[in-house]
Amino acid sequence: MVTITKNFTTIIEHIPISDVFAIIKNEKSESESDLESIKKMRQHFEKGEYAAYDFMKRQLNAFIVTGVYKGPLKDVYLIESLKEYSKMICIDYDDIPTDDLLKVKKVICNSPYTLGCFISPSGHGLKVICKVSTDEEYHKMAYQQVMRYYDKLTGLEADPVCCNITRLCYYSHDPDLYYNPGSDVYSVDMSYTSTQSNLFVSIEDIKKGAIKQKELDLLSYKECLYERF
Fold first, then answer.
1. pLDDT of amino acid 93
2. Which member of 25, 88, 121, 216 has the lowest number of beta carbons within 10 Å of its beta carbon?
């Protein structure tokens, strides 16, 4: 189950991720005004009217893929509000060239770990959702390993600051959304350790110099926790 929110603070309901995907594909009920809003948002984005795009995006419903959140609405984004962890990770790729978007999506969809993949509200990004083997206390570790896997697979770099467990994912519209309910669970390597920057990396990768600078520059968990996208 995932949590559906409105305006950052209002919890609307808790529904299966399959229902979210059906809404994004427009297979389940979604108001025509929402679909029209997303079309207009993409037009604003294409014209470089980013302020208008951002304003409209924040009017959309969003979901928190990591599980069921309850409690006082003011605390919805606090980790203490998490009542049931979904064991799912959402990776975000932004600013993909138009000519490459569908090619990258196909590569992602061919991965056995991809539970779902859809085009973001801007029309120029992809959201990737993957099941993981670990519980909430290892969410950031799982995120970083899944991110590195898809970065290597696509040759792109995902947004590293989407690592916080309460990160919002806005509804979008993609009639060709990919959904594989039988996708494999990504097995998180528990031999990783936490560095002073709160980045989980393996000792062997440190020795080999295999860690990217952008990963070493990740925000601390506390800073990352309150980022909203």
1. 97
2. 216
Q: How many CA atoms lie within 13 A of 65 on its CB side?
A: 27
Task: Kindly report, residue by residue over 20-70, the tens digit of the pLDDT.
Answer: 999 999 866 555 667 888 999 999 999 999 999 999 998 899 999 999 998
The pLDDT of residue 219 is: 36
| DSSP 8-state class, residue 110 | T
Give the C-alpha separation, 54 to 184, whole Å: 34
Q: Which of 206, 190, 200, 204 is nearest to 224 (CA)?
A: 200
Question: Cα separation of 186 and 91, whole Å?
Answer: 13
- Is residue 226 one of the residues assigned to a domain? no
Distance CA 136, CA 41 (A): 33
State the CB neighbour count (10 A cutoff) for residue 44: 18
Classify residue 193: in a domain, yes or no: yes
Sign of the C-alpha dihedral, residues 158, 160, 166, 170?
negative
According to DSSP, the β-strands at 2-6 and 114-119 are unpaired
Find the distance separating the first CA and the last CA of the chain, reported in whole Å.
20
Whether 229 is in a domain gets the answer no
